[in-house]
Structure formats: C-alpha cells, structure tokens
C-alpha cells in the first residue's frame, strides 16, 4: 500500500489539516496517510526538519513525505520533489531539505505542475498534493518537474570545540519536556576519548554521568543520555526538564572533559 506522510504547521484546531487529507484521498483513496506531526510552530523550518529527520528513516522504501512548512505562495520560492536514500520528499525549497539530509539528493526536480489559481494561496493542497500522489502511485520524478542541480541552503548552529570543551545549545524540547542539544553522540565520543566529563547548564546545574535510559536514576532526578535522535539530551526522570531546569531553545550548554 502506498504511504504518504504529513509534516506540517497546520495544527488541529482548524480545517486546514482535514482539507489537506481530503485533497489526497480525492485523488488516491487507497493511500495510507500517516501523520508525523501537524504541531510544528508556524513557519519553524528547523523544528520540522529535526522531527522529520528522526522519523523518516523508520518508513519503508518509496514512502512519500509531504512537507507543509512555509509553503504558501511566494514568487521567490520554488516547489520541489526529490528522492533520497530510497524515499521521496515533496515541499517548498525554503532550506528545509538542507537541514534534513547529510548528502545531496539522489534526484531533484523543480515541480512544473500547473497551478490551479483558486488554490494560489494554499499550494499545499494543490501542487504539492498532486506531486506526492503521483510519486505514491509509482510515477517518476522527471514526469512532474524539471531537473534541478541544488537545494536552498540553510545553516544550523553547530557546537564549538575548544580543546577539552564542547559548547552546544538547545535545539529542541519534546513533548515530555526533555531538552535536546545540538551535541551529537559521534562528536561527544570523538572529543571525550573515554575521559570523565561535567555537563554544565543554567549556571550551577551539572551532570557528570551518562545514563543508558531514563529510569536509571530515581524519579525526579536529572540525567543526560543519548536518545533516539543520537543527540545529547537533558531530562528528569518522570519530570519536565525544560521547565524545572529553566532550559529553553537556544540556551547554552557546556561539556568539559577531564584529564
């Protein structure tokens, strides 16, 4: 069965999400629609990229991922479809794909599907839906677009390494209020070299040991671990780390490794 996933900032209070799904089902009633999330903060490309990047690898090959973030009509924004490691992605070329992928797409086209003027303000249910359904049916990228060479680039804030110190920042707070930083497991291991460490945040708060899972410490105690995203997380077992520890997006964290 064909699969189309949805990652949008449409929320669930209005009719927009229903209109999107109805548009897909009107063309391909048998498709399996999977919601990744509709709760991306409005126009927040980096948030959407982080969520989708940590979800799409679990889907089977030939899944089509439809992205509805900052996709309203703009004369300077093109709409694209692409393949990457056996899966398809459709959305506005607004920088999100450069945050999603570590390498260039395997194939990329700029969509040339005729725009229905009555949906000019809402191309997500028109051009992007038509492209996603075409691919879900087994259609080729070259049949819906013109080959393109590159995607719009957007830079993320990267950790800074200073000898035995990694300075990172908070990039995501999940539903459980776990705080996720931009320090990856690979980077941490590379700098650590099997040494002890101290994680500093919010002035006097520290953690000195990595946990394997959340229940490794008593309820209410703070911990750090590498979760499913392979990024360093700060959490409280059965608690809300973001609010209780006062950690918000873009806050600085520091890891110091000891001789």
Task: Estimate what percentage of residues fall within beta strands.
Answer: 25-35%
Cα shape: elongated
Ends: how far apart?
Answer: 55 Å
The chain-level mean pLDDT equals 93
Counting H and I runs of at least 4 residues, what is the number of helices? 6
Largest sheet: 9 strands, mixed
Q: How many β-strands, per DSSP?
A: 16
Global Rg: 21 Å
Question: Fraction of residues in helices?
Answer: 10-25%
Structural class: alpha+beta
Query: Unreliable runs, pLDDT <50, ≥5 residues?
Result: none
Element order, helices and strands? Answer: EHEHEEEHEHEEEEHEEEEEHE
Care to describe what's here?
- The model has no long low-confidence stretch (mean pLDDT 93).
- 33% of the residues are buried.
- Helix 1 (16-27) crosses helix 4 (127-136).
- Helix 1 links the parallel strand 1 (3-8) and strand 2.
- The protein has 259 residues and is an alpha+beta fold.
- Strands 8, 9, 10, 11, 12, 13, 14, 15 and 16 form a nine-stranded mixed sheet that branches. A seven-stranded mixed sheet has the order 2-1-3-5-4-6-7, sandwiched between helices.
- 19% of the residues lie in helices and 32% in strands.
- It has helices at residues 16-27, 45-53, 96-100, 127-136, 185-192, 241-245; strands at 3-8, 32-37, 64-68, 79-84, 87-92, 107-111, 145-147, 160-162, 165-173, 179-184, 197-201, 205-207, 210-211, 222-226, 231-236, 252-257.
């Amino acid at each position: 069965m064909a699969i189309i996933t949805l990652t949008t900032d449409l929320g669930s209070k209005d009719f927009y999400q229903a209109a999107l799904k109805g548009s897909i089902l009107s063309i391909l009633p048998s498709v399996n629609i999977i919601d990744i999330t509709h709760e991306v903060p409005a126009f927040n490309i980096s948030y959407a990229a982080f969520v989708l990047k940590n979800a799409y690898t679990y889907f089977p090959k030939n899944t089509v991922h439809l992205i509805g973030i900052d996709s309203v009509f703009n004369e300077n924004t093109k709409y694209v479809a692409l393949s990457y490691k056996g899966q398809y992605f459709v959305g506005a070329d607004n920088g999100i794909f450069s945050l999603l992928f570590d390498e260039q797409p395997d194939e990329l086209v700029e969509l040339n599907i005729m725009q229905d003027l009555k949906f000019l303000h809402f191309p997500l249910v028109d051009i992007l839906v038509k492209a996603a359904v075409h691919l879900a049916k087994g259609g080729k990228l070259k049949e819906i677009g013109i080959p393109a060479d590159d995607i719009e680039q957007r830079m993320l804030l990267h950790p800074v390494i200073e000898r035995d110190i990694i300075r990172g920042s908070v990039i995501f707070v999940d539903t459980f209020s776990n705080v996720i930083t931009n320090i990856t497991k690979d980077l941490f291991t590379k700098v650590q070299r099997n040494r002890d460490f101290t994680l500093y945040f919010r002035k006097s708060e520290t953690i000195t040991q990595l946990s394997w899972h959340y229940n490794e410490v008593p309820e209410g105690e703070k911990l750090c671990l590498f979760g499913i995203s392979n990024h360093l997380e700060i959490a409280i077992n059965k608690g809300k780390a973001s609010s209780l520890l006062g950690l918000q997006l873009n806050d600085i964290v520091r890891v110091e490794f000891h001789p």
